[in-house]
Amino acid sequence: MARLTSLLTSALAVFGANAASSVLDLIPSNFDDVVLKSGKPALVEFFAPWCGHCKTLAPVYEELAAGFEFAKDKVVIGKVDADDHKELGRRFGVQGFPTLKWFDGKSDTPEDYKGGRDLDSLTAFIREKTALKPKTKKAAPSQVEMLNDSTFKKLIGGDKDVLVAFTAPWCGHCKTLAPIWETLATDFASEPSVLIAKVDAEAPNAKATAQDQGVSSYPTIKYFPKGSSEAMPYNGGRSEADFVTFLNEKAGTHRAVGGGLDATAGTIAALDSVVSKFTGGAGLAEVAEEATKAAASLKDKYAEYYVKVFGKVKDNEGYVEKELKRLTGLLKKGGLAPEKVDDLISRSNILRKFMSDQGKSEL
Ligand SMILES: *[C@@H]1O[C@H](CO)[C@@H](O)[C@H](O)[C@H]1NC(C)=O
């Protein structure tokens, strides 16, 4: 076993770039130990790096292996670069790529896999052979709102600012955009008034909308401010940061790339100016009263928070520093609901306004 472990470790070292993969890389030095003598059955793909069908299979195979990863002591899902290791391919009569073979873990005579190269067929095969049920990690649900003709009419012009990407299934730039769009939607998931949406311009139930909108190239991105069905075309860059900046500007949000909030979130200019009088040396009682008045007209929970901080400072001079430290600690600890994180960042931003000028430049 020690030898096997060291072989596997060296295999992993060789294929270090694939360390996150659930598919085991098989090479001449580990093949016999892992596939023929381990007593564990193995599905082995013989592939060549230049082969198109192999590239198509790769993500499916990866998903298959991830599903059976929990049972890796019972079944191996592996692959052989048979271009690099021609002798291994030759030994098992591999003539085309990809070739999939099932080894029972005891004999060196594999069985050809003749099923489909889709995930369902491959999974069914392993299930039948091993009686193991795959465990699929449920992907986090998408925060992108797929709109069809009826939901588009309902949501656009409503109480949300909506950024819509019109896409087509065959469009390469849309595929590039897709993961960025998912990330963007996650960044804005706890922003109740912003919606990141998508219209599949070729879906039968959404086609008419794309036509109405005059969409003729993909992806086309449009912004619909709340209350308006008049689109604003989006022609900016297509990075997460580009979209976040655009939305912050248009929708008045304070999102940061990655889903957090920027340093202005929660802060209110009118109250900041009251706070700066205080940090500039004005009397506490006087500014506290001014803040209370300003907050009363704003009816905003963070405006109330300014008032609360003034109250605390009156009783406890070191309050701001201590409280900021406490909130920073909570944020560092992590594991909080996104709304809670937003709230703590907003309050921290306000507290920083109360620090003396010297403190400000430090933070
Ligand atoms: C449009 O989407 C909504 C929500 O996903 C769904 O309930 C509705 O059935 C869809 N309408 C059509 C025509 O597909």
Which strand order does the major sheet show?
Answer: 1-3-2-4-5
Q: Which architecture of the largest domain would the CATH scheme give at its second level?
A: 3-Layer(aba) Sandwich
What is the CATH topology classification name of the largest domain?
Glutaredoxin
Number of strands: 10
Helix/strand class: alpha/beta
CATH superfamily of the largest domain: Glutaredoxin
Low-confidence stretches: 1-19, 358-363
Query: Per the principal axes of the C-alpha atoms, what is the gross shape?
Result: elongated
Share of residues in strands: 5-15%
CATH class of the largest domain: Alpha Beta
Ligand catalogue: 2-acetamido-2-deoxy-beta-D-glucopyranose
User: How many separate structural domains?
Assistant: 3
Task: Tell me the radius of gyration.
Answer: 29 Å
* Number of continuous helical runs: 15
Features:
363 residues; alpha/beta; Glutaredoxin; elongated; disordered N terminus; disordered C terminus; binds 2-acetamido-2-deoxy-beta-D-glucopyranose; ERp29_C; EC 5.3.4.1; repeat
Secondary structure topology:
Elements: H1 2-14, E1 24-26, H2 28-36, E2 42-47, H3 52-68, E3 76-81, H4 86-91, E4 99-103, E5 111-112, H5 119-130, E6 145-146, H6 149-155, E7 161-167, H7 172-187, E8 194-200, H8 207-212, E9 220-224, E10 232-233, H9 240-251, H10 269-279, H11 284-298, H12 301-315, H13 319-333, H14 338-354, H15 357-362
Parallel strand pairs: 1-3, 2-3, 6-8, 7-8
Antiparallel strand pairs: 2-4, 4-5, 7-9, 9-10
